[in-house]
Amino acid sequence: MATNSRATATTETARTDRPTRPATIDRVPAVTDPATSATTASRAIPQLTDVRNRRLADGYFGESFLVWRCLDCGETGSLDAFPAYCPDCRGDRESLFYWVED
User: 65-101 has which fold?
Assistant: First the structure.
């Protein structure tokens, strides 16, 4: 005959007159050069990750110019002065917008 009895475990703590010490903390290595180190004293900075397309940002892609462009006819012009209307189709100022041209 099997009985369902729950085993009860009692946990007893030893009482001492001395206060307990806090747990030992790992010694944090000293940072010698912050420019070349990947960690800080609090280890707040994660290790560097490898970016697959990092070379793309280093390359020279050309030169771009900020110009205005007409939404109605596609005319572009220099931004020496933003025109009040499109000189080509006489479109109002709401049809003009900033445009980056290669």
Answer: Rubrerythrin, domain 2 (2.20.28)
